[in-house]
Write a structure and sequence with these properties.
The complex is a heterotrimer of chains A (320), B (316) and C (319). Chain A has 320 residues and is α/β, with parallel strands linked by helices. Chain A has 13 helices and twelve strands. Chain A has one domain: P-loop containing nucleotide triphosphate hydrolases (Rossmann fold), CATH 3.40.50.300. By secondary structure, chain B is an all-alpha fold. Chain B has a single domain, classed as MetI-like (MetI-like fold). Chain B is 70% helix and 0% strand. The two termini of chain B are 47 Å apart. Chain C is mainly α and 319 residues long. The radius of gyration of chain C is 24 Å and the shape is globular. Classes of the chains: A alpha/beta (320), B mainly alpha (316), C mainly alpha (319). Chains B and C meet through helix 6, helix 7, helix 12, helix 14 and helix 15 of B and helix 1, helix 5, helix 6, helix 10 and helix 11 of C.
């Protein structure tokens, strides 16, 4: 049984208009997303701004209201409050935010910031609590003297590590990382990511790694799901996605990863233009009348793609 | 849930204490410290603060020696004494009552009511603003409607009508009545700031970390708007002094026989009094001006101190 | 945009209704009745009883309220018990005075505030700015009625420049003379009101000017060689006009409230004094009419300002 199973998740925001503020339409931020996360796995959720990836993450942790669909944790549906409490879901799922400055309360000391989940979910004595906070600081590679300082006294990367420490405090099974390194310098990104990996190994935590940066995702994730306009367009293992992308949108994203090798500049540029051209031409095929992607089709054990119906009618054999 | 036994358990008590001290030293000065520095750097601010504190203390202490009934008893012998004459410092009014003594008691009354008004209306306004801004949605809509409606009611007139209706009223009832009308400005300010803070990630984080909503409002958000609260309360205080005194001036403030700065200024209503017996009302008027200017200035200084770019004190 | 306006107007209606009920009940709750005091104190209680009966004062409150509302829609605000005149007439007379004073004050306020705000913004940080800042600080700290009293003392009684009571001198004759005399009576209270009502506009304009000064479009204009004077005139000022107009609507509440003090200090026969008198005489037809009127004017002012603002700021506009 998977740790988390998301089934046909939909998050729609009503648009009100007309004279009596009736609901005239919906913004379909998340429109029928399904995937699962196993124990100890890192699954990356990739997409551009507005694709719905952040909303999906927030829906799973409960920051957003779900319009329909279900989220199963250890087999039980946690959209029902009774199940949530029973399974201690809130303790088991934590989040790391993108903006490290605004995700830490500027008026609180680091000790209080990290201890917040402990005070809510566990009842430790003052000493036990302090000990635990020190342990957590150590896990993310920060000195004990961070205890009494304030967030503004730290750099972005350090703050993000504090956020990680806070998320790990209650020994969660799943951490949802919402663009955790997007706001950091490249050199610092690697540091934070490595700490995250270390924690994963030591404590067997699963990650839902939300990002728009395929380069970072490649480093961190076993499984990757690509989202576009509220729907999944491709899901697969790391190799599936990087070596055998099927959906035109995935290809386009991959082509946008900056290359550090300058020698093949001309060829890269041509390749990119070609992919962009392919995208423009085939857009109408790969998206339905509303501009949304089609349902996922399984093309291998691990690889799912939102293929248009026409390609299905061909011999089921899709080449990559 | 125990696999975290780390190598860190050997940090000692002493080390912790040392760290705490170091942190305190290295840390940026606390907000109160910054405020105090700002005051020191600004001479008029210090003077205002001094005047204010000294005056309030004087009034409180002096009024304890005075008996209201004796002060307000008419004494025809002293009809319209000029100041510095026959033993009265500021002269006396048509009833022979000492202006100086009335001023002291009146100040005590007016300032107390202003303080009470500020405390009650600010607390309510802050609560309203925080709740409305944090919860949003239906609660906010309802609160906004109430706010809109109260803004339409002609405040002064309604207060005067209410004051005439209530059969026995005293300073406390008056303060309560006034508080029912003067919380709106504060609530609007606090609400807009709370709205902004609620969007920030640390509030979202607290929610995912399991903190209850009310705890978030009072323990997480409120400390972040504390400087706004302090500045607004101070400036409201200056404004609120004018509220009761204005009402008393019109004759609808404190009940008859209770001196207030406003009732003293009301002595100026008579065209004869205003010029001939100017000492009956002028001291009270001057006092209000000085008090309000001082308090307002202090509020400005506090506001400046919370905005780093405007500070005048240099960093240590 | 029209939808927003319509919606606002529709919300206005229940608000007005609630206001009128509130006002009516308040006035009814006032102790005493309009007859016992004003008539001969030896009057027969039976006569008073009779008077109250025929005036419908013993009817249930909702009936009295309904009667009152019906009369309202016919433009009949009842009779003043004190003056024995239709309230409507009283309001017309006194209202004109208050209106003149209010308009004069408002015009003067903008006349002073607009140039002052721009001036302060232009000379940001320099001594001119500080002077304006001190001015706003003083005017917003001191309670207005104190200013009025001191003002009339110095300029009215002391220096004898301005008249100290009434709205027009009894010796004024001819159209020109009357107008001049009326003006003379308005100038001092109007000037004081204007000087002390400029804070919001000045602060707003000043910050607008400062923001605009550092904005890209102004820098572009300057680099193209447009003189600063013109920039201020065409861009900055124009952009700030509508929000400032919106302020006007919101300031009606303050103006009306303040007029009570002004009329008291200057013995100016307007609606404010009428109100104070009516309270003392328990003339509750006048009281209800005035409170309702003022409430209605507040409502109008707010509505107007909201509409103007929604036109100006596309973010506020709810399509």
């Amino acid at each position: 049984m998977s740790l988390i199973e998301v089934k046909n998740l939909k998050v729609h925001y009503p648009i009100r208009g007309g004279f009596f503020n009736r609901v005239v339409d919906n913004v379909k931020a998340v429109d029928g997303v399904s995937f699962s996360i196993e124990e100890g796995e890192t699954i990356g959720l990739v997409g551009e701004s507005g694709s719905g990836k952040s909303t999906t993450g927030k829906a799973i942790i409960g920051l957003e209201e779900i319009t329909s669909g279900s989220i199963l944790y250890k087999g039980k549906d946690v959209t029902k409050r009774t199940h949530r409490k029973q399974l201690k879901y809130d303790e088991a799922v934590q989040m790391i935010f993108q903006d490290s400055m605004s995700s830490l309360n500027p008026r609180k000391r680091i000790e209080d910031i990290i201890a917040e989940p402990l005070r809510n979910f566990e009842h430790l004595s003052k000493d036990e609590e302090k000990l635990r906070v020190l342990q957590l600081l150590d896990i993310v590679g920060l000195d004990p003297d961070a205890l009494y300082k304030y967030p503004h006294q730290f750099s972005g990367g350090q703050r993000q590590r504090i956020g990680v420490a806070r998320a790990v405090a209650t020994d969660p099974s799943l951490i949802i990382a919402d663009e955790p390194v997007s706001a950091l310098d490249l050199s610092v990104q690697a540091q934070v990511l490595n700490f995250m990996k270390k924690i994963q190994r030591e404590f067997n935590i699963s990650y839902l790694f939300i990002s728009h940066d395929l380069g970072v995702v490649r480093h961190m994730c076993d499984k990757i799901a690509i989202m576009h306009r509220g729907r999944l367009v491709e899901v697969g293992t790391r190799d599936d996605i990087y070596d055998n992308p099927q959906h035109i949108y995935t290809k386009r994203l991959l082509a946008a990863i900056p290359e550090t090798n300058v020698n093949n500049r001309e060829q890269n540029r041509e390749r990119r233009l070609k992919i962009e051209q392919e995208y423009q031409n085939e857009q109408s095929q790969y998206y339905d009348a509303d501009g949304l992607a089609f349902p996922l089709v399984q093309i291998s054990d691990t690889h799912f793609v939102a293929l248009p119906k026409e390609s299905l009618n061909k011999q089921g054999e899709v080449n990559g | 849930m125990d696999k975290k036994t780390g190598r860190v358990s050997d940090i000692s008590e002493d080390d912790l204490k040392r760290l705490e001290k170091e942190a305190a030293e290295e840390a940026t000065p606390s907000r109160s410290r910054i405020m105090w520095n700002e005051f020191k750097a600004d001479k008029p601010a210090l003077i205002s603060l001094f005047i204010l504190v000294a005056f309030v203390l004087f009034v409180i202490i002096a009024s304890m020696f005075l008996n209201v009934h004796k002060v307000m008893a008419t004494d025809i012998m002293n009809f319209y004494n000029k100041p510095f004459q026959s033993g009265s410092f500021l002269g006396s009014d048509s009833g022979g009552r000492s202006i100086g003594q009335q001023l002291i008691i009146g100040s005590r009354n007016s300032i107390s009511i202003a303080i009470g008004l500020t405390v009650i209306s600010s607390s309510w306004g802050i609560f309203w603003g925080l709740t409305s801004g944090y919860f949003g949605g239906k609660a906010d809509l309802v609160m906004q409607r109430v706010y809109d409606f109260m803004m339409i009611i002609p405040m002064l007139m309604t207060i005067i009508v209410i004051v005439t209706i209530i059969p026995h009223y005293n300073a406390i009832t008056l303060t309560l009545i006034l508080s029912a009308f003067y919380w709106m400005g504060t609530s609007r300010l606090i609400r807009s700031r709370t709205l902004a803070e609620t969007q920030k990630d640390y509030v979202r984080a607290s929610k995912t970390l399991g903190t209850s909503n009310w705890k978030i409002i009072f323990r997480e958000i409120m400390p972040n708007i504390s400087s706004l609260i302090i500045v607004d309360t101070t400036l409201s205080f200056a404004e609120n002094i004018g509220v009761e005194t204005g009402l008393s001036y019109l004759g609808f403030g404190l009940p008859l026989g209770t001196p207030s700065l406003g009732t003293l200024i009301a002595n100026a209503n008579d065209p004869e009094n205003i010029t001939q017996y100017w000492w009956t009302w002028l001291p009270a008027a001057l006092e209000i001006i000085i008090l309000c200017l001082s308090i307002s200035y202090i509020g400005q200084v506090i506001r400046r101190s919370s905005n780093a770019s405007q500070r005048r004190a240099t960093e240590k | 945009m029209w939808k927003t306006i319509l919606r606002r107007v529709l919300i206005m209606i229940p608000e007005l209704i609630v206001l009128s009920v509130l006002v009516f009940l308040l006035a009814k709750a006032m102790p005493g009745d309009p007859f016992t005091g004003s008539i001969n104190p030896k009057a027969d209680p039976a006569q008073i009883h009779h008077l109250m009966k025929i005036n419908g004062l013993y009817d249930p409150w909702y009936q009295q309220y309904w009667n009152w509302v019906v009369h309202l829609f016919h433009g009949d605000l009842g009779m003043s018990y004190e003056y024995q005149e239709p309230v409507m007439d009283l309001i017309k007379q006194r209202g004109a005075n208050t209106l003149w004073l209010a308009i004069f004050t408002m015009l003067l306020t903008y006349f002073i505030a607009l140039p002052l705000g721009i001036y302060a913004g232009r000379h940001e940080g320099k001594w001119q700015d500080t002077v304006v800042r001190v001015y706003t600080y003083v005017t917003m700290s001191i309670p207005f009625f104190v200013v009025l009293v001191i003002g009339i003392w110095i300029f009215g009684y002391g220096l004898n420049i301005f008249p100290t009571s009434g709205s027009v001198s009894s010796t004024a004759s001819g159209l020109g003379g009357t107008i001049l005399s009326r003006l003379g009576h308005i100038i001092l209270p109007g000037l004081l009101g204007a000087l002390f009502g400029t804070v919001n506009v000045v602060q707003y304009l000043r910050s607008e000017v400062i923001d605009a000064k550092h904005s890209d479009y102004v820098r572009t204009a300057r680099s193209k060689g447009v003189p600063m004077k013109d920039i201020y005139k065409h861009h900055i000022f124009r952009n700030s006009l509508l929000p400032i107009a919106a302020f006007a609507g919101y300031s009606i509440t303050g103006l009306l409230g303040g007029s009570i003090f002004t009329e008291m200090v200057f013995s100016y026969p307007g609606m404010g004094l009428l109100f104070l008198n009516a309270i003392n005489y328990r003339d509750y037809t006048v009281i209800t009419a005035l409170v309702l009127l003022y409430g209605f004017l507040n409502l109008l002012g707010t509505l107007l300002s909201d509409i103007i603002l929604s036109v100006v700021d596309p973010r506020v506009r709810i399509e």
